Amino acid sequence: MDQKTTIGNFEAACLLLNLILSKIILDFPRTVSEDAGSAAWIMILLDSVVVYLLFLLISRLYRKFAGNDLLDVGEIALGEIGRIIAGIIFLIQFMYITHVVLRQFAEDIKVISLTSTPVSIVILLFSIGMIVGAYLGLEAISRLHVLAIPLLAAAFTLILLFNIPRYDISRLSPWLGLGVKAILQKGIINLSYFSELIALFFLMPFLKKKNSFAEIGRYGIFFSGLFLVLSSLCYLMVYQYPTSTEFFLPMYQLARTIKIGRFFSRIEAAFILIWASSAFLYLSSSLYFITYIFQRTFNLKYRKPLIVPFIILIFTLSLLPENLYSTLRVEMHIYRIFSWIFTLVFPLILVIIASVRTGSKKRREEAKP
Amino acid sequence: MIIRMKTILIFLIIISMIFLSGCFDAFEPDELAYVVALGLDDGADGNLIITLLLAVPIAVGVGPEPGEIENATNIITVAAPTILGGINIVNSLISKRINFTHAKLIVISKELAEQGVERFINTFARFREFRPDTHIGITRGSAEEFLKESKPVLEFNPSKHFELIMESFEYTGFSNGSTIAEFYSRMECTCNEALAILLDISQIEDSKDLTEVMYNLKNSEGEVLEGDYTATDMPIVYENKVRQMGTAVFKADKMVGELTGRETFYYLMVSGKLGQAYYTLPDPGEGAKNITGKREYITLRLGQARKPEINVKIKENRPVVNVQVSLEGDILSITGNSDYSTGEGLKKLENYASGYVKERVISFLEKTRDEFKSDICFIGKSVKKTFLLWDDWINYNWAEEYENADFVVDVEVKIRRSGIMVKQVPANQLKGDIR
């Protein structure tokens, strides 16, 4: 049934944008300023350019596999075992980030709003949303993204605009922050901020226009890069380094300080709504991709029966970190170091092998009398 | 069957959304006691004396009877080693739960501020109930006494009273409106130092006391202009005894000195935060004195014509700070007979005002350098902008370098309007001096 599902370019782009950008409302502006100081925005700008160029290369090679997802490409490259290995790798990656993000969203909600509610209840509430999203499928999720993303983008832009009176460009100095070496070294690891780009390669079979994936990816990376750079730039123009490394939720902090006149203040209440929407969309999409990858990897007939077992697994995994710091550590010190390899380098290798194998197969067939 | 299952599922989800939302965190507003102002004093054995000025919602909501405005608030004082520890004790005593989300003012005693306030500021920055726009003030005496003496007279909503009074600096220029967010950011900044609002309780009971107060305040020129004093000495007789005037200056988290109301005016000028405020200066006319031999004055409404420009150049290892202040104003009052509304007179007044303000701005800046050793005017940011690397900037140590700074100040005052009069024809020109 899912294979009949088709989604448009805008829907796919919105889905991609939310997957990449939801980290802005988590800890992104803080963690980048920890890595590069006042030059965090330069580091992310460079990362965006590198990812854009890498994607151009991958998409050029991928053109001949348009309409196939990465698991198909794995199969073309290394046979059935290639599909299974690729499937397991991407499954682990999605499982890892989904349980961490689920816990992070839940902890964040607990810190700023539902302070007395047990974290397990908050996670449970998110899990219900995830089940509903994954059950309804990609079409429903992507259409919901089309409705939500423009609103989320507008809300994000408003937060940045309302903070204009507090911007001070001098806070971005010293201009190279912790130094060129830190920018380059940490910049490589921080390519992982674009790791959700991998979702595009699983959306391929569902695209109405199979060849438009390169366009979606280019726009997706451009706007993701734009918003990521803007968020770190604006945050640093309000909170100079090292104060910028102290706040748990940078965007929430920016929203909290908005005050226009005596009446327009405390808009972070609306921010929680925006946040929860983005979280639900992110987590539902992730659960969908997890079940989809598992189904495709092991050639299963049905996807929906996988939803409940996986949500139980994710729920349990998300409760494993002992505290908030452990959750952040799992994301910052483990996931971010490796995930760029699986999302940018590994697909590139797979596509190169598949291209070589397809080429040699074609040559062999042509050589046949 | 499937449709029926779906309907039941959707129904269950909607029901759970209704009943689960906020089930753990639900608070009725009437179950909370809203703190309007918090006072901190030094207690015995390392304890804090914490004073809470609570709003009484019923009194605020319906509006008290005339003369019963004080019923709108309630005061509780508790001793504890930490602020939130003290709040816990209070919570066990009163029927409502203490909540800081509507707190407008935090008052810290000078004694505590001189020891360092980082331990409190961290609480305010970390605990989400404290709003970043809550004002921070330092009182020379006890914070508890300050809050006890605080009796809003013209406003029965205590929260609004504090909010409006703390933001009055925009049209008086005598205070600085420092908030938690601003204080915290400045305290941690490597190119700037923190400051807070200076508060105190007035000891003046009667208008007869004003003569003595004014006599004691006289400067070397034998005059006292408005704002030439701090909150303690304000020559005012008023039902509400609490006063706000001047600035508490900090270096890192420790209070190191005070600025008078007028010096605070110059601080606002240099840091580009001056709104539109009245400013009195002596009449520039030679020997401009009235018939009784007293000096004549001119009152202007001054505001920032454009943002001040601050440039720092390092010459012979000393920072040379160039400050350019552009002000514009209206003539609001001339007590003497000279007319400065047009032509040469206007030019003369502009030149005189520029020189007068410049002299005082330099002396204010020198005070921050020599007496406080604290860059409260954000001058360091001009130096910071010349650095590329964080480590180099930290090694430069601006806080220390500021002590060697030289100031070159240029003030330009432009008079744009002269009120609703274009010139003044003095009565003595028409009828002669009548003795």
Write the layout of secondary structure elements.
The complex is a heterodimer of chains A (369) and B (435).
Chain A: H1 9-21, H2 28-36, H3 40-62, H4 70-112, H5 119-136, H6 138-162, H7 180-189, H8 198-203, H9 213-238, H10 250-256, E1 259-260, E2 264-265, H11 268-297, H12 307-318, H13 324-367
Antiparallel strand pairs in A: 1-2
Chain B: H1 2-20, E1 32-42, E2 48-55, H2 57-62, E3 73-80, H3 83-91, E4 97-99, E5 105-109, H4 110-115, H5 118-126, E6 135-139, H6 143-149, H7 158-166, H8 169-172, H9 180-188, E7 195-201, H10 209-217, E8 242-251, E9 254-259, H11 261-271, E10 276-282, E11 297-315, E12 318-334, H12 343-372, H13 380-384, H14 390-396, H15 398-401, E13 406-417, H16 427-431
Helix pairs in contact in B: 5-9, 11-12
What brief labels describe this structure?
heterodimer, A: 369 residues, mainly alpha, Amino acid/polyamine transporter I, two-stranded antiparallel sheet, B: 435 residues, alpha/beta, nine-stranded mixed sheet, four-stranded mixed sheet, 16 helices, 13 strands, 34% helix, globular
| Structural class by secondary-structure content of chain B | alpha/beta
Unreliable stretches covering 5 or more consecutive residues of chain A: none
By CATH, the superfamily of chain A comes out as Amino acid/polyamine transporter I
Strand content of chain A: under 5%
| Class per helix and strand makeup of chain A | mainly alpha
Largest sheet of chain B: 9 strands, mixed
Radius of gyration of chain A: 21 Å
The largest sheet of chain A, given as strand count, sense and whether it forms a barrel, is: 2 strands, antiparallel
From the coordinates shown, what is the CATH architecture of chain A? Up-down Bundle
